[in-house]
What does this fold into?
Amino acid sequence: MTESGNWRHGGHLRQLAITAGLNPEALLDFSANINPLGPPEWLRSRISGSISSLVHYPDPEGQALIDAACRRYSVNAEEVLIGNGSTELFYLLPQALEVRHALIPVPSYVDYATAAGIAGLTIHTLPLAAGNGFCLDFEALETALKELRDTPVMVPLGQPNNPTGRSFDARRLRHLARRFPKATFVVDEAFADFVENFDSLTVNRPANVVVMLSLTKIFAIPGLRLGVAVAAPSTVRKVKSLQPPWSVNTIAQRVGEAALLDTAYTQQTRAAVSTLREELRCHLEQVPFLTVFPGEANFLLVRCDRTSLDARTLAGRLLKRGLAIRVCDNFDGLDERFFRVAVRTEPENRKLVEALSQELFMAPLVKTRRHTPAIMFQGTSSNAGKSVLAAALCRIMLQDGYRVAPFKAQNMSLNSFVTRDGGEMGRAQVVQAQAARLDPDVRMNPILLKPNSDTGSQVVLCGKPIGNMKVMDYFRYKSEAFERVKESYDDLAADHDAIVLEGAGSPAEVNLKAHDIVNMKMALFAQAPVLLVGDIDRGGVFASFVGSMEVLSERERAQIAGFVVNRFRGQPDLLKDALDYTLQHTGRPILGVVPYLKDLGLPEEDSVGFKEGLFDDARPAEDAVDIAVLDLPHISNFTDLEPLRLEPDVRLRTVRRIQDLGHPDAVILPGSKNVIGDLTFLRAVGFDRSLENLAAESRCEIIGICGGYQILGRSISDPHGIESPGTDLVGLELLPVDTVLEEDKTLIRTEARHRISGIKLHGYEIHHGQSRADQLPPALIGSDGNGLGACRGDGLVWGSYLHGLFDADAFRRWFIDRLRQRKGLRPVGKVQTRYDLEPAFERLADTVRQSLDIPAIYRLMGLR
It folds into this structure.
């Protein structure tokens, strides 16, 4: 890993990787001091927007860029010089200055000496002491300047220094510069943006100080080549006279203008790098035989003190592991023991520390997470079909012999489920667990958000509700919540061969990305390649693929492994041109075209399908019983009704307006996440009177499930402000039931029997309400013999807290047949449809296996 003065990183490193038999693209490069966060998100659009300008020559003066530099550094335009990287300016400066000597503290950036040598300067070095952490010795520097007897001299100084990462006291340098006016101090602030509380020499700059600034390190764009110098106007003019015309191209100028104004990204990077650097330093210091020198930039200088192992040999061993470090034996003042490592992301830093520990024959000193192969489905939008595809892949992998589990960091849904141990989780992950033939586990969905207003939700963490939060309150809580998410993921992943993750919404939602814990942040933590799913049935799917890639950061874009076109109606061959275009434009393949799958027989992911009329049935009501479901604004657990959709003699329809209610055979009030709000809604639109009339006619059966059961009652009280500011409301008064919303939430699995039919039922309860019924028979009898729910004497108005009561095939048929008899139809007398998801999972897996490139997905996961 040798570097010379004219060494250029990319080609040399690529050749080393090829020589070692490695894929250069897969190499973790700790030798390049580039921002670990990657380029800012605006970079791609800035470059794209500059393409039309390439038909013109660039502005030879770069005036717009200079103006931006003036605003950023509070200097005058005649003090600013732009160049093709700060390296170009370094090579021109010694030729422009009227100096004969260069005094260079060492170790330092090798091009300082190279540029001075090309200009014919006599080079004097000032060794920095390892025992002093390679800090700049101002007394020694002053002594060396005095020995030159006021001879004009150039003094290049890294601030912070490369490769040591140490900064000096800027105030002392200002004082020293004024005392030695014939010396020109060239202060290289290429890595200054990584230093917290940095004191730039562009401020209160003495006339004999030249400040070199690089925009490529902090913005991770070294290939763009852009540097800025701030100096005395006379120095700027001299250097400019030596500079070739059009030194800085149009794209570099445009990017530079934006970069100089983007202080937010600089602050974000500085904070992130500071944390990553300190963590890396602490871990490296635990490895015996390594001495880590304190640094303030985005890299650390390390010395290998093991007598039988020098840095070059160590670098060769690490390269075989796919890790590149920077050997520093060509830096004046350093020997074969020294190497430099860049600060990269947390998982990458862990790999480096583990590899160093192993190469030094040590047991791992850093607890390393076991990496479980993983893949993640994200979408170009909500309801793109991610959940169904995740369930399909879970079943496919199960068929192929893998112990696979689903995972979604955060789910926003009113459709929840209670696990065997009393934890609450989203139904989508329950279905995916069933596809993998696993018991639902709250680790699969550690955060569940249940909206109870337009601006707030109940937050369920690891299966237990922790309270209601407004949006901004939850944003502040997210960092803490994500720690629990990571713990849940690691714990779940350790028990399985593979994990299928699901994102939420879209990773391209720029208004939410800063607070993301469910899409790219989770993919990066899980080291999961991402398949971006688009719904072609909505239209614009290829624009969505390309547009999503455009707004992702480089780091996020690298995580995208391919695309999936979902819900396609037609011949896939017709898409060939579009697939080729997408590959050419994004560099990512389409890994599958999944057909539109109607009537899957699986529960819906969320209430989108319900709200869009998915439950509405157009079959004639004469040959079927007519069941109306009230579309409550805060409907929850609407999947209680899924089994009824499958029955051939049931017309299930969603009712939103009072004029659409008609004269159904049954009305179901489903669960609600805000019974106070939904009860208010029903009264406001007049449903209360309509239901009262239907109940009085004694022909229509009215059923309330959970929140719907509470609404049917006499009163609802919210003394603790669970869903309101402490409201008490009169219910629909169809049942003499009084409910109090308590702070503690009931989360239990329940077994019972229907009192009238005697048929066994099982399901779960999720509710804050505690209800008391006056002198009414119960609707159900629990396994302990206690009554559950309430039922009017004639059995036509009843309700309970039991979710899943219609899942029981025998009870569902009994219920429908009773409606048929009341309507004058002959009862069927035997089960017509079995609510069994297994055939649906198998059909789904067969179709998706034929549509997706499963071998390619397994290769992405590292399984084959």
